[in-house]
Amino acid sequence: MDKQKKKTSHFPFRLNIMFFCVFILFSILILRLGFIQIVHGENFRKDLERKENISVSNPVPRGRLFDRHFRVIVDNVPKNAITFTNQGFSQKEMLKTAERLATLIEKRTDKVTELDKRHFWILKNPALADKKITKQERQLYAAKKLTDRDLYRLKLERISNAELKNFSQKDLEVLAIYKEFTNSYKFIPQIVKNENVTDQELAIISENLHSLPGVDTTTDWDRSYPFNSTLRSVLGNVTKAEEGLPAEQLQYYLARDYHRNDRVGKSQLEWQYEEILRGHKAKIKNFTDKTGNVIETQPIFDGKNGKDLVLTIDMDLQKAVDQILEEELWAMKRRPGTYLSDRAYVVLMDPYSGDILAMSGKKLVRNQKTGRLEIQDDALGTFTTTYSVGSTVKGATILAGYQTGAISPGTIFNDAGIKIKDTPIKKSYMYLGNLNDVTALKKSSNVYMFHTAIRIGKGHYEYDKPLNFTNKMAFETVRNSFASFGLGTRTGIDLPNEQTGFKGYSRLPGYLLDLVIGQYDTYSAMQLAQYVSTIANGGYRMQPHVVKEIRSPAKDKEKLGMVLQEVSPTVLNTIDVKKEWLDRVKVGFRKVMQEPGGTAYKYFKGARYAPAGKTGTAEAFYDGPLRYQYGKEPPPVMNLSLVSYAPSANPEVAMAVLVPWAYQGKKDHKANLKIGRRVLDTYFQMKQGPL
């Protein structure tokens, strides 16, 4: 019994010890929770409430462009910039910041519109704006017959010009800054000012960033062109900071991780190679609370410059050809009958690789202010404009005749003019006697080509009788053959907006005769260069290209990065002709330029680089910028062209010259031959030294 009592008395003691220990542990836990709640509670709350956002930070330079000898064609120039990043600020907060910023910098106001001023007046004068709404209009609003938008529109309309004139210059600067703020997107920096930002402005803003929420300073980039206007129309442009993404391609770019205010290539090379040239902006991770305030920022990507492009263009050669075209255009304008002549084009191409060595176009444009003619770059026109080119296509005509069996090497025709019933006689520039295929090329016989076309069409010709074809596919046959050389089809050049040319729609037999002498369909200078290259290299239609290499951006601006991709020569097709047929055409082309009696011999005799080629003159209708001065019937004009390659035995360069609307009337000149001789002389002089 005593033992039982003793045992029972120990139980409460042990229980008390256990309760005491539990009490101590709970006390420690409560103290710890209290400590965490008091000391770290705010941080834990922010961690619990924060949201994660990915933003693009400061711009990085686009890729540079180099010529084939690694000279910089397009570069980047750094410039100071002031940005604003909207972190969810209210209108009042942004206005307050804009007012502070306006006291520190000068901001241009030339882009502030009257509508901007009206919106700004309402923002600055809300009470006065409310007084512009009548009692009756408020009753209509209460009856839901007018909306908030209706009332706001009425306020805008009722602001007087006198009230708008009360804005001071500083008010307008605040408005211009505020307008940039409101154009921004959340967490995406918006350029507020990047032109003529002084070091003093940069310094004072940096000192006052604590009172300018969202404002920052950074480095922006502009494109620079060391060769000035040379090749400018082909290099293209980049959108400005205020433009952002082009509206017509907005969804395309947004789907590729662009932001709405990003600058992108908007034309030609800059547009075509946007994905290569664009840099990748620095990315940062923003942590915000539930109200949208940024509570932490972490960098996740430092950004990367765009890749560089090495072009096939030789800029020294390009500049020299540009100079030749300018001089010859001015010389043309001093001759009679050249009122409508205003442009000329030259393309130089490696016939084996498709490398474009030079693509020059020059255009005379009248300055609206001074009334004087000025030269503009129109290299773009070498592949975006097309013209009737005349006899330069006759090499393709002869080969089409061989292919179809209409003629064979050595076939002879008499050069007497062809007369189809109820049409004017069609003839060569003079009677040339009996001609074979080679001599027909040398002397540029139209009649020889007419007879070839008649045979392709399986027609029967009699003087002053109707001409009909049994081969209803004659036009398709000739055009398909021409297209295999690049005439009347896209050359495949790595630039946008290439034009294929106009194809005449009439199927009357007489028009086929015009087609085979280059006076029906139209072609570009680039197509002519591809065509003559195909003959020069033995029958391979090479794709012309202006980009030679893609390189990684170099850390040292004075050096080049490693080659990421090299553009290899691309054969688009081979022409279906025998070697001996092609050789016959090459002989004819050689005789054109190297043998007395050839249509280009007078201008190319003595050329040590042994050129071959074909001249062209086409009677065409003027459709240039002055066409509306002539009503429905613009005057006939003469287009001049020339295709050539050299040396004739082992070609290393192919050339096309095109001079649209060169003259009117019979006062002819040979600008195509003058330009062609000077260009080829220049090419070989630069390569081999003085001739």
From TrEMBL:
The keyword Metal-binding does not apply. It comes from Neobacillus paridis. Its EC number is 3.4.16.4. Transmembrane segments: none annotated. It is found in: Cell membrane; Membrane. It comes from the Bacteria. Residues 59-298 form the Penicillin-binding protein dimerisation domain. Pathway: Cell wall biogenesis; peptidoglycan biosynthesis. It is a single-pass membrane protein. Residues 345-679 form the Penicillin-binding protein transpeptidase domain. Keywords: Cell membrane, Cell shape, Cell wall biogenesis/degradation, Membrane, Peptidoglycan synthesis, Transmembrane, Transmembrane helix. This is serine-type D-Ala-D-Ala carboxypeptidase. It catalyses: Preferential cleavage: (Ac)2-L-Lys-D-Ala-|-D-Ala. Also transpeptidation of peptidyl-alanyl moieties that are N-acyl substituents of D-alanine. Its main location: membrane. Gene3D superfamilies: DD-peptidase/beta-lactamase superfamily (3.40.710.10), Penicillin-binding protein 2a (Domain 2) (3.90.1310.10), Penicillin-binding protein, N-terminal non-catalytic domain, head sub-domain (1.10.10.1230). The keyword ATP-binding does not apply. It holds the Pfam family PBP_dimer.
